[in-house]
């Protein structure tokens, strides 16, 4: 198995690579790559979702600085100047002419623009933010709101429509904004802590002054203090938006860099929530994959994975985390490239090994890597199967996997392998794994019950229910039975005593979380004990309620009477304890020709007046025991006398043939 737990997608998006006459742009919101030819009005647009290349012809009025589709892909916005943005309506006959929007102020410059909703766009300028509504049919825009802020650099999350602006000379005061349809809000600003700079000694200061280096040193110090755009990004982890800040340390300190996560909130200023410790310094890039923060380090050509919900030390305010595993390179990747025409005229291709952690790589959220010179766009993927082999602690492994999407079969395979000889875990470890799985299972059942009770209130509401991202995977009893227990129970190399202990441990865990145990789990235990002639242990399990009472279990015990006669009485006792299955007890007794005990049971429960006389008389007649038939007949005659003051049966009882049988055997009925 490969020693790499990160992959680049096997089928990358291919596009026209950057060149002397080709510029490449990426639209994060729509996941599209634009290849723009210099001096040409044709633009090639390649989409990740459908892998198709579309060609668009737009008016050629100068070099393209930025280009993006609206969210419905009906309007194309193109920036060719620092003063304005052009718009082109697509798919509208006779409406291909561009219209333009100038930014406010003569000295204002457009740094970037972002679509926040269908027909709504923001301009990020050097002096703040301008929020516009686009009217394609009128070929015009309307200013909805503007904010005046001095801008060093900015970050925008198309997933949350949140914009962060860096202000102040040091760049570490952040002004957040959030955009909704025709609405915008300015959130509380916050300050990013900058690394402390070591103080100079008096001798160092004097030497610097004498050499005339004070100004240079001050400039260098100021540069170190600045929060730079390259060291920050926005990431969504477990449904929450974080500002990710990389803090490098001085090389002489011998301390590795760290990543600080600031949790953004609508109601209060963002606060430090977590610190991720790295054992190296240098240039880093960050992706998010399946709620994991993936940190790429170019110098060492390795990537480390962090999980803010797994492990870590918490001091009441922030949590400190180390990588889930040692940093490793991304798995090698190749791309097909044309080699030339073959002998039959077809184009031959060969595989080209891609340079990993190339200087040409550009990283986008959440998990996009683009090599514009190669013309490739990949998604970073996590290889859970490889991670399994690298994490020895089963409990920690299960904790980690429960937080991952599409991990159900991996978890079930881990459980199955822990039962197989050679890789078998101890019963105590298996018990902890079961408890971990069932704790999540219980929370899932509670959440499902709550959602069900509130479904009527939310029906028809346009507001979606909050996404529960606590756990991405739930293992229920059917999963455990189908994919684990039923597949290993017949493996001869596994001792039956161990398997019985494992299943009983699983049942114990379910009971400890007050989860109703399904009958098929009991059936597996009983099957194992019967096959190995362990009837005494089976008897004890039933007598001391290790196996809980249920109708399916009672029926199973009845079927075992031929191999274990006491099973009948055990089943009958079980049915008696289940007060809701009195009819089942009567049916069982009738099937065993136990008519008198059945009548006694009905009388003890006050239900003899409701039972069908014909049912009992038919069973008594079929038994061939005339004495039994006489007793049953007289029982119902007495019932008739008590209910109707006459011993005779009425036509609705449908007992005429049994009255005739009684008369033929014993003379006229009274």
Compute the CA-based radius of gyration.
38 Å
Widest sheet, order of strands: 20-21-22-23-28-27
Number of helices: 18
Structural class given helices, strands, pairing? Answer: alpha+beta
How confident is the prediction overall: mean pLDDT? Answer: 85
Helix content estimate: 25-40%
Structural shape: elongated
The quaternary structure here is: single chain
Low-confidence sequence ranges: 198-215, 217-222, 459-469
The share of residues in extended strands comes to 25-35%
Distance between the termini: 88 Å
Q: What is the total tally of β strands? A: 33
Biggest sheet: strands, sense, closure?
6 strands, mixed
Plain-language structure description:
With 670 residues, the protein is an alpha+beta fold. 31% of the residues lie in helices and 27% in strands. The chain has 18 helices and 33 strands. The strands form 8 sheets. A 6-stranded mixed β-sheet has the order 20-21-22-23-28-27, with no helix packed on it. Strand 7 and strand 8 form a beta hairpin. It starts with 5 loop residues before the first strand and ends with a helix. The model is unreliable at 198-215, 217-222 and 459-469 (pLDDT under 50).
